């Protein structure tokens, strides 16, 4: 059973997220919070596998709450809820250790898939979130975009062929177990590849690695 905490300052959003997750027999919402500080305290108390956090909340925003949760309850993975127009917050949240990003207006199936993915230790970027982040980076100008793409390609070119295969799977939201089955290797080998990929790309988490993969053109 995947234990989940939901944090959003809008009761209707919390109710909607709970209703969607309740349709999945392998998920159990163990706590709800209306602000970031309560989200941190309830995470410490209940130790959920996944904390679903709104990016903007009173008291302590989702980015700060995510960073505190990852620092104090590292076994809890964080997935962020965002809306269009919050691209800067998404980029900040990557640095705070968030493992996934979902659009609030997205499909219910996406929410379930995202929670399940980060519970298994994978990264999950809603396709629309990934597109928004890349588009936001592109808005800095053609020269900057070309530079970022070239830098991303240079970083991914430094990976081995197998590491690039793992990165593509990682960017697709697959867990280590799923990657192992797809590539016909043992899970320990995948873990070693993921650690090497993060080090070579100079990123802190799988979600940030997925962004590099998008920038390099390795993912649709």
From TrEMBL:
| UniProtKB keywords | DNA-binding, Phosphoprotein, Transcription, Transcription regulation
The positions making up the signal sequence are: none
Keyword DNA-binding in the entry? The reply is yes
* Modification 4-aspartylphosphate, positions: 54
Q: Name one GO molecular function term.
A: DNA binding
Q: Where is the HTH luxR-type domain?
A: 152-217
In this protein, which residues make up the domain named Response regulatory? Answer: 3-119
Domain of life, per UniProt, equals Bacteria
Annotated protein name in UniProt: DNA-binding response regulator
């Amino acid at each position: 059973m995947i234990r989940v905490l939901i944090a959003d300052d809008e009761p209707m959003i919390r109710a909607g997220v709970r209703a969607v997750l309740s349709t999945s027999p392998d998920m159990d919402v163990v706590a709800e919070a209306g602000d970031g500080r309560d989200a941190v305290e309830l995470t410490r108390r209940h130790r959920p596998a996944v904390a679903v956090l709104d990016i903007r909340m009173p008291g302590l925003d989702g980015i700060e709450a995510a960073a505190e949760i990852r620092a104090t309850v590292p076994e809890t993975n964080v997935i962020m809820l965002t809306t269009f127009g919050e691209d800067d917050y998404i980029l900040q949240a990557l640095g705070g250790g968030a493992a996934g990003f979902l659009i609030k207006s997205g499909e219910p199936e996406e929410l379930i898939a995202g929670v399940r993915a980060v519970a298994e230790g994978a990264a999950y970027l809603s396709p629309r979130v990934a597109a928004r982040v890349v588009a936001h980076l592109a808005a800095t100008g053609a020269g900057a975009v070309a530079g970022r793409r070239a830098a991303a390609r240079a970083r991914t070119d430094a990976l081995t062929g197998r590491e690039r295969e793992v990165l593509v799977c990682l960017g697709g939201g697959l867990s280590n177990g799923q990657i192992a089955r797809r590539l016909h290797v043992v899970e320990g080998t995948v873990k070693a590849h993921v650690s090497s990929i993060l080090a070579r790309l100079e990123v802190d988490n799988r979600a940030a690695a997925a962004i590099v993969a998008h920038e390099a053109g390795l993912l649709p």
